[in-house]
């Protein structure tokens, strides 16, 4: 084969490549990337090394990986969308079984009853956790679940605006814009109370209208505080005929009222804390649930696993349900272009949730809240630090401001590494009005000694200035 051909990549053969381009009606490969802004294109060939024997590749990769430090070597207080939690050994043992291990979602003809039942159990537990009646068997992540929820709300209400809080993960908001723009949906932000961080109800009332498809809130918020006005927001939203979408961290639902109990119409969230390890930020697991109304359910994205019986009714069975919503059947008329799910991550979450049970979830939530608030208490005692920035109850994450100390977050985090501590996320550029503020995360894995070591390290860093 020629110099530019690859034995395992058929379209590296020039004739094959040209035939494929002719078939789809393009003259240049670059036409496939027309939607990508020029400033993001590499505009050069990849700098790839020449081939080498397997054992040399292994040595080279191990050398590169040795530069990394893991959560086992550092005390990590970084969350902001992907959080450090303990994953029981049995979770990993089960998902590594050959009956379940898959790199992609199984389609119905290929799916075993075991996999279908596992996903059905995942859906059932998500419903119980969120207080909803129907859940799909997972999305890609929280951000894509939010984007799909916005489009679903627009289809159901025939409206084209969605209101979101100003305090939202910027990357989640960016994903929402990507989903909303092609559907003609306008995203508007609602301000917050500067003292508490809570949604500004006056601003909400001034912006919600007959054009509003949905109002979205996060509980707990991106900056860790608990939204205490959920009932009022639900009433205001429904009074204008809009849908109420709530984003959740599922580990909080052992102690916080589930969204279904304060009239949420759609619940989205991130399932990574439910038995999925942090792996350079992914893979994540999108939670998506709604009420048991066929009109609503038919507009859901993703896959739904249902339970049925054999023809004579003597045995239970599991199957894909409502597939007529999906793109492999309806093509461009599908409710969404997601027909995959994070199957293995969903199975891991099902195992994790079944291990914890209701009492375990309560204990997990209490432990996280106690430890996070202990960290807040110690941090707030340090001269030059304000923690948290907002006067509201917090869960898992909280803000720490260093303005009075005259320190930059980047400087603080660099010095914390010398103590074997990975500090919080710098949110000063995301929310400039908050000044030099970092978002810290404390979960069940952080010991009392680690939290005290963080406080002592911060105190020593401030004493050096």
Q: Any overview of this molecule?
A:
This protein is of the alpha/beta class. The chain folds into 3 domains: 10-48, no CATH class; 75-86 and 358-464, Aspartate Aminotransferase, domain 1 (Alpha-Beta Complex); 89-352, Type I PLP-dependent aspartate aminotransferase-like (Major domain) (Aspartate Aminotransferase, domain 2, 3-Layer(aba) Sandwich). Helix content is 35%, strand content 14%. It has 13 helices and 14 strands. The protein has helices at residues 14-24, 54-65, 89-95, 113-130, 142-157, 170-180, 201-207, 230-239, 294-297, 327-330, 343-380, 409-417, 448-464; strands spanning 75-76, 134-135, 161-165, 186-190, 212-218, 243-248, 266-270, 286-290, 304-309, 316-321, 397-401, 421-422, 425-426, 437-441. Strands 2-8-7-6-5-3-4 form a 7-stranded mixed sheet, with helices on both faces. A 3-stranded antiparallel sheet has the order 11-14-13, covered by helices on one side. A two-stranded parallel sheet has the order 1-12. The longest helix has 38 residues, at 343-380. The chain is globular and about 65 Å long. The chain starts with 13 loop residues before the first helix and ends with a helix. The model has no long low-confidence stretch (mean pLDDT 92).
């Amino acid at each position: 084969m020629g110099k530019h051909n690859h034995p395992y990549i058929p379209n590296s053969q020039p004739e094959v490549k040209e035939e494929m381009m002719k078939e789809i009606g393009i003259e240049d490969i670059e036409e496939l990337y027309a939607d990508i802004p020029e400033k993001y294109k590499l505009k050069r060939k990849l700098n790839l090394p020449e081939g080498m024997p397997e054992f040399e590749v292994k040595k080279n990769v191990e050398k590169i990986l040795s530069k990394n430090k893991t959560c086992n070597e550092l005390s990590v207080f970084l969350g902001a969308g992907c959080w450090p939690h303990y994953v029981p050994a049995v979770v990993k043992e089960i998902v590594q079984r050959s009956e379940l291990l898959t790199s992609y979602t199984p389609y119905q003809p290929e799916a075993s009853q075991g996999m279908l039942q596992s996903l059905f159990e995942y859906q059932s537990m998500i419903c119980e956790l969120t207080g909803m009646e129907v859940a799909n068997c997972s999305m890609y992540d929280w951000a894509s679940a939010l984007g799909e929820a916005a489009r679903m709300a627009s289809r159901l209400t025939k409206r084209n605006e969605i209101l979101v809080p100003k305090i939202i993960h910027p990357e989640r908001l960016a994903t929402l814009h990507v989903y909303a723009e092609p559907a003609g949906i306008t995203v508007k932000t609602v301000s917050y109370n500067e003292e508490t961080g809570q949604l500004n109800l006056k601003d909400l009332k001034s912006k919600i209208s007959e054009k509003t498809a949905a109002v979205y809130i996060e509980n707990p918020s991106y900056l860790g505080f608990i939204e205490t006005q959920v009932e009022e927001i639900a009433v205001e939203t429904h009074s204008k005929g809009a849908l109420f979408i709530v984003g959740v961290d599922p580990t909080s639902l052992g102690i916080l009222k589930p969204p279904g109990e304060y009239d949420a119409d759609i619940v989205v969230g991130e399932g990574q804390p439910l038995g999925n390890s942090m792996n350079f930020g992914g893979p994540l697991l999108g939670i998506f649930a709604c009420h048991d109304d066929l009109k609503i359910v038919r507009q859901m994205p993703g896959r739904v696993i249902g339970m049925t019986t054999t023809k004579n009714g003597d045995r239970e069975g599991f199957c894909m349900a409502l597939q007529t919503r999906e793109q492999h059947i309806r093509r461009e008329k599908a409710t969404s272009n997601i027909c995959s799910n994070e199957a293995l991550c969903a199975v891991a979450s099902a195992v994790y949730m079944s291990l914890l049970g209701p009492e375990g979830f309560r204990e997990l939530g209490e432990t996280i809240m106690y430890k996070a608030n202990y960290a807040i208490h110690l941090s707030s005692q340090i001269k030059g630090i304000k923690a948290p920035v907002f006067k509201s109850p917090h869960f898992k994450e909280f803000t720490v401001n260093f303005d009075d100390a005259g320190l930059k977050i980047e400087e603080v985090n660099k010095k914390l590494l010398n103590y074997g501590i990975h500090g919080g996320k710098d949110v000063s550029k995301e929310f400039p009005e908050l000044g030099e503020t970092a978002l810290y995360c404390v979960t069940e894995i952080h010991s009392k000694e680690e939290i005290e070591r963080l406080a002592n390290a911060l105190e020593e860093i401030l004493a050096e200035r």
